# Entry
Amino acid sequence: MSDVNESFLELSGITKRFGDFVAVDDINLKIAEGEFFTLVGPSGSGKTTMIRMLVGMDQPSDGEMRLKGQVMNNLPANKRPTCMVFQSLALFPHKSVGENIEFSIKIAGQDKAARRTRVNQLMEQLRLPLSYYEKSVMQCSGGERQRVALARALAFDPDILFFDEPLSALDFRLRKALEKELKDIHRETGKTFVYITHSLEEAMVMSDRIAIMRQGRIVQVGTPHEIYNYPKNKFVAQFMGEVNTLAVKKSGKNKVKVVGGDDEFTVLDDLADFTTGFLIIRPEILKIGKAAAKMKNRIKGVAYNDYALGSRVQYQIIIDQFEEHWLVERLQDEPYEGRRGDMVEIGWQPADSILVSE
Amino acid sequence: MAGTTQNSKLQWLRNPGVLAALPASIFLLIGFAGPLLMVGAYSFMPSRSFSLNQIPTFENYISIIHDSYYLSFFWSLAMAVIVVILLFIICYPIAYGMAKLFNKWANLVTALIAVPILISENIRLFGWVLILLKNGILDGSLQSLFGVSASGLLFTVPAIILGLVYVYLPFTLFPLVIGISMVPDTLKEAASDLGATRWQIFREVELPLSMPGLMIGGILTFVLVLGSLAEAKILGGQAIVMIADDIESAFTFAQNWPKGSALSVLLIALSGFIVFLLFRRVDLDRVIGRR
# Structure
């Protein structure tokens, strides 16, 4: 993203307290125009509270929200040039597909012909058959309802479109398809999208930038590439999915030792300002069996079980001295040659591990 | 082939739903449909007869048309319409509060509104007589405190309306509470987010979605007021005569069961027709979103 208009939406010191409980704690963020920005966090991380404040359904206890330089803290939801796609979608059950989509422009007083033109245009853009205009939204499928909700929000022509986990209730395949579709629509409309979800995987697929939230605070902001390759701490690294984690301490230049053990591994970092932390190694990067022999860092374990993941096969290796199970993944057409129960060597290069703080 | 049709004809009898509904159906047939059919049959018997084995006749209906009963019908209808409208205006804010705002206090409010129903309607109405009476509680208090008189309140049409509104308030209120609580808050938030003002949210989202409750409360109250007589008699004196009063007189003073029956049949037909019209205009299934 260009940083010409970096502060299209600017949040400074946003805090929300419910009694003694701090749901959102001093959030500072700048979101650029046209960006697909995603807030990711587990439930209770404050992301829903965050988005409710952004659309105007809740008021921040502290801090300032600026849209295009204008403070919008005290603007009620119906006066804000923003719009949200709800988790429940919140479609009006007593209205047809067309009536749902045209709601905002009907409210704004547009005449019937203009409304119909706009609705048709949106229905085409979202691949909804034009014959659905009269159809009751309650008769639409899950995917169709998503599109109606999105069309309804787009009809409002908002400066920013917010999404509150609208895909979370859908089955896996439909969700995957709609993730990509949403990114395509983002590209076509050029609008600023702010999305919240508990799935980092979902965020990765769609977003230009991701902010990871934990306990009301932002832990890391970055592109999907940055988040994946340079997680700031153990929480972010583990949030992405299955990773192998090992508590380590500095034992020399480019050397770390396992906490409470003798194994020593080489890392790329010269460890100038590192004492203790975690070594993160992704399952897909680890080598197993013969391939591990050439690796600089190696350990031995027992091949306990294997799982088919489609394109890849995952092996669970029990490493006695760590009292841990590690995961190793191989492409399915080049599987590990040994059997379950065999003692096997696994290994990785110094450049493949990530060193993070707690 | 013939065997299977025979079978399927008897199939419904083995349906557990039909069997389970059988005792209640028989009870309703004897206790509810039976008396109604009797009333229907009596309406075609000659005037002042007390048995059903006479030659059927239309004389009761003809005499009703020639008489001035249309006035009583008019008053009953007028009262029903006025009371339903007034109750909607009074009950909507209360129902809204009970459904969305009062939280734990809603139970207390429900109890306070429901408890008077346990006391006989007539006794509550006589309470109002004491209040509205010349030199009664209201008039007397106003006289001694401000020197103003409010003596002409009792035995007027407004007094009847007051009584009807007072007695039938719970019947409008409680269905309305259910109707309003059926409207999800997220829909109102979504409407607001899309730019709707409070009034637009009410008109476009809340009102149509709480329509089932409004309809049920409205129809219940309408039918009850149509058949009411205590309010007009106790608070109205001779101000107006409502149709239920005429029916009672026909059965008691006049000892003319056939005429009372004919009036009853006409009242039932009238209520049925109006309810039918309302249900045709408002498609409840679509409002609830089932279609």
About this structure: The two ends of chain B are 37 Å apart (CA to CA). Chain B touches chain A through 23 residues (CB under 8 Å). Chain B has 15 helices and no strands.
